[in-house]
Amino acid sequence: MKKFFPKPSLLACLGLAVSLSSGAAIAEDSIRAQVYKAPEFVEVIEAAKKRQANSVATTGIEVLPIDQAKFLRGQHFDFEVEVLDKSEKNTKITINDKDIEEFFDTKLTRTVHEDYISYRLNDLQFTETGSLNVVIESEVDGDTRKREINYEVVDPKSENRAKNVILFAGDGMSLQVKQAARILSKGIYEGKYNDLLAMENLENLALITTSGYDSIVTDSANSASAYNTGHKSVVNAMGVYGNRTADTLDDPKVENINEIIQRTRGMSIGVVTTSSVTDATPASTSAHTRRRADQDYIAHNFLNESVRPEVLLGGGARYFLPLSQPGSRRTDEIDVIKQFEDLGYQFAGNRKELLETSDDKPLLGLFAMNNMDVYMDREHIPNPEVVGDFNDQPNLVEMTAKALDILSKNDDGFFLLAEAASIDKQLHTMDWHRAVYDTIEFDQAIAYAKNWAEENGNDTLIIVVADHSHGVSITGTYSEEDGGVGREAVRTYGDAKWPNFVDEDGDGFPDNPDPSITLAMQYANFPDHYENYRFLKNPVVPGLADADGKVFANEARKGHDDARMVEGNLPQYKETQEVHSADDIVLMAGGPGSEYFRGVMDNTEVFYGIMQALHIDAVEDKADK
Fold first, then answer.
1. By CB neighbour count within 10 A (0-12 exposed, 13-18 middle, 19+ buried), where does 296 fall?
2. Would residue 572 be called left, alpha or beta, if left means φ above 0 and alpha means ψ between -120 and 50 degrees?
3. Average pLDDT for residues 440-468, to the nearest whole number?
4. Per-residue confidence at 11, pLDDT binned at 50, 70, 90?
5. What are phi and psi of 451, to 5 degrees?
6. What is 54-154's CATH superfamily?
7. pLDDT tens digit sequence for 491-534
8. Beta-strand (E) ranges in 230-379?
9. Which H or E run contains 410?
10. Which pLDDT band, with edges at 50, 70 and 90, does 54 fall under?
């Protein structure tokens, strides 16, 4: 019988050993040289050297939008060059060897700042697809500094056109949190899951990278902005490229999905979230700011006709109430709720009022002063200590259903963002039980939307995606049945028996979030905190900070006397909570255009996937058609 791996003779082995020891065989340095001279490796090294020589740090020239930016043909944007030296005398900018003022038929604005010079053009468009080479040459102290960047302009169209798009955002929904939701909601028997989540039955799948252009780890503003504009941004920013001015509202803007679909097709817009509607992810659908905390502006900006949603549902009433009203966080006396009502909007302040609203009028619903309470405290085990006076909040399924009823009245279609915001917020506080129950609620909203799409023409693209991840993993199970507690009750490998969550009422949520055998969810990053592994009756932050800002473990989190204090691995004077991770996230999609999402993709590609499905022509306004 022929052997696949014939055994070499002893003599041959001895000969090889002699040749190696004598240096007659390939030397280690020679092997290394061959590897390092491989064409692909040399190409990577040379590209890295070129990028470094062409960087802001080397040239002293910042260009916004950044190098390698991608544009939808017709998408509006602002352009800015910052020469980081006040001794600059003259700057020449060309696009494909053509002067930029001639290229766009407009004049640059030159501004002298305290320690740099800027050149600005606003409200531009690229009307042709293709590659663009942008060259900036600045005269500084008698020398010429040069920076060269490249842009790409695209106009993708899917084979099948979608009329509507629903973007489901599971804020912070890591792959492991989704898996935990599957375990708790569907169950697992002899190693096989009893069923998949609704989101997992969508036909297309991709992995999404999440970094912004300033940091390897993103926040929700930056990442959601990538989905809504197709462009990278910086931490805390949305709809802009961050410049160096103190004004957080003057940065170079990039047109977002809502602006494009309103301008070109008159589509309807919906925003549904379990957070404050002025929080990062919902705000990214409309706002242009470098500072996500500009919530006065964000709330009022929803009234802007170019981005005004027909349906706006969530928490955050405090930024819609005038300053003189109790609970308001505005800095002025603008009554944003009244301004919506003056435009013909219905207003709902609780679940009962929401369910009674008409489907024929636009709707503003604000169900909490800040973020809405999580499913666990709001609905599963109603907790008066947590919800307080806001004891009649709708759930995400009800808000999604109402949004679809109203938005579907527009024959030109709609774009709906529906966010499960507190998956992220509960992972920050290291409360995985509440995060997972919110993930199950999220999946039930997705199931509702899938059924709605099937019953209404199958012309709706549904995308489900997180905006970033958290470093949390299922490392086994946790059980105190043999008397072990704390870390000694964490069961690994063969000792990690199946969790015994039970769903007797069949609502998709385990009846008891704290069974005798539960999941052992472990975090990759954390502040000093007490860990007891069990369900916390009331939500408790893991860390607190003293007057000097030093973080210490919150004793309210102990839960029982055997909870152990865990020394954190985050900066001791900065983080009181767990923080985001740079992990890739999963995207699931179904419906017309969903085939765009395959393999590993940058987060900006979500925008282009939506645009190609809708067959948007962003060059022409609807008024000109």
1. middle
2. alpha
3. 98
4. very low
5. -65, -40
6. Immunoglobulins (2.60.40.10)
7. 999 999 999 999 999 999 999 999 999 999 999 999 999 998 89
8. 268-276, 311-315, 346-348, 363-366
9. none
10. confident
pLDDT of residue 39: 67
Q: Residue 607: left if φ>0, alpha if ψ -120 to 50, beta else—which one? A: alpha
| Residue (of 68, 63, 102, 65) closest to 83 by Cα position | 63
CA 234 to chain centre: 12
> CA–CA separation, 427 vs 283, rounded Å?
21
SS3 at position 208 = strand
Q: What is the pLDDT of residues 132-150, one digit of tens each?
A: 999 999 999 889 999 999 9
Contacts of 105 (CB under 8 A, 6+ apart): none
Instruction: Note if the pTM is more than 0.90.
Output: yes
**What HEC string does 124-163 produce?**
ECCCCCEEEEEEEEEEECCEEEEEEEEEEEECCCCCCCCC
Strand order in the sheet with 490-491: 490-491, 472-479, 517-523
Pairing of strands 117-124, 109-112: antiparallel
| Distance linking the first and last C-alpha atoms of the chain | 76
For residue 75, the model assigns a pLDDT of 99
Q: Where are the domains of the chain?
A: 54-154, 164-194+208-412+455-470+610-624, 480-580
Q: In the Cβ-directed half-sphere of 394, how many Cα atoms lie within 13 Å?
A: 26
Q: Quick check: 43 pLDDT over 80?
A: no
Token pair of 550 as six digits: 């030093």
544 DSSP β-pair partners: 552
- The reply to whether 54-154 and 164-194+208-412+455-470+610-624 are identical in fold is no
| pLDDT at position 328 | 97
CATH number of 164-194+208-412+455-470+610-624: 3.40.720.10
Integer Cα distance of 158 and 611 in angstroms = 9
Is the CB of residue 287 less than 8 Å from the CB of residue 298? yes
pLDDT, one tens digit per residue, over 261-306 is: 999 999 999 999 999 999 999 999 999 999 999 999 999 999 999 9
Q: For residue 506, give the amino acid letter.
A: G
The one-character DSSP state at 594 is G
